[in-house]
Amino acid sequence: MRIGFIGLGTMGAPMAARLLAAGFEVTVHNRTREREEPLAALGAKRAASPKACAQERDVVFTMVSDTPDVQAVVIGDHGALEGLADGAVLVDMSTISPATTRRMAAALAQRGVQMLDAPVSGGSEGAKNGTLSIMVGGEAAALELVLPALEHLGRTITHVGPVGSGQVAKAVNQVIIAGTYAAVAEGMALAMAAGIDTEAALKALGGGAAGSWVLANRARNMLAGDYPLGFRTRLHRKDLGIALASARDLGVSMPVAAYVEQLETSLVARGFGDEDMSNVARIVREQAGLK
To answer: What is the dotted CATH code of the domain comprising 168-287?
Structure first.
């Protein structure tokens, strides 16, 4: 399988590296061209544009930041659409608007190219370790074609429906984790203010109904007031914007997600957008009078 990979950021670079390590022939492209160099050192070919990255490729993966970025690299000037051949598959693993996904899929279909929307959950750790949860929208036959590659990127690969469905599932994921991060931050603030043994509390909580990935992997960061990057706050803020827009269209009220979006908007405005999203605890701690 000849693979193109567009977007070599915090998530995309380790994912492309895993495909190279698995023995696939991989061509890479990134808007900031220097980010291609570590992948080239691992054996990847470099392409000067998304179009060039897609030429003579069976599958092209895109993993970029936002809806306009995906549109640019897929259907923009010198985009992947111009290079993809009839029968190829484009797999967008970004988190973007479901409606835009459907429009791009229609444009690709006119060229005989199938599209899968396959956003992921699991953060940078999951990208490095190949343990992502991948939510796939699109035709089952297209998923079957790219499954040998996806199996090196994710531990859980779930076909959730027609094109666009993966993005809806990811929006649901981001809403749920928004509430979880906020709740863990508030719980840790309460534990700190009360002066209990927080390490013992984490052990007890992790073994009960409060146990979660966020509690296990981010609560200690919240307690320390240190937020090393796993998933950028500004990107989760973008994802919540997509989810809330979909909710408005469908008449669904989501007050918890709206509250976390406000917290994250404040953090981005204060210059903390590139910290891990566990930094919602920064505001919770401040409001509790904790350093």
So the answer is: 1.10.1040.10
